[in-house]
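INFO batch 0412 | record 1 of 1 | parsing
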Amino acid sequence: MDELDKLAVQLWAVGDEVRLRILRQLPLKADCKQRNNVTELSEALGIPQPTVSHHLRVLRQAGVIRRSKLCRDCYYHVDSVAIEEMTQRLKESVLREER
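INFO prediction complete | emitting tokens
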């Protein structure tokens, strides 16, 4: 997958209203005090747990969030480096100089 393909996948993943709402709920780093599991996200957003799980999987596969496991629960946080790289690639793709 080249850089443009990766960018397209990431933009598609974050371009969904539900996934944007999920991203806004997640901490920017793996933090024990601010961690969110699927059940907590489902309750906070008023969205069924299977739907939240689906959207988390899409975001994780696109590389914009990370998952960490603690005992039986999985917790999620935004991969801020991936978000910064994605926005930089978008700027470079769109605002490139004329050749």
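INFO post-check: Residues 3-94 form a domain with the Arc Repressor Mutant, subunit A fold (CATH 1.10.10.10).
INFO record closed
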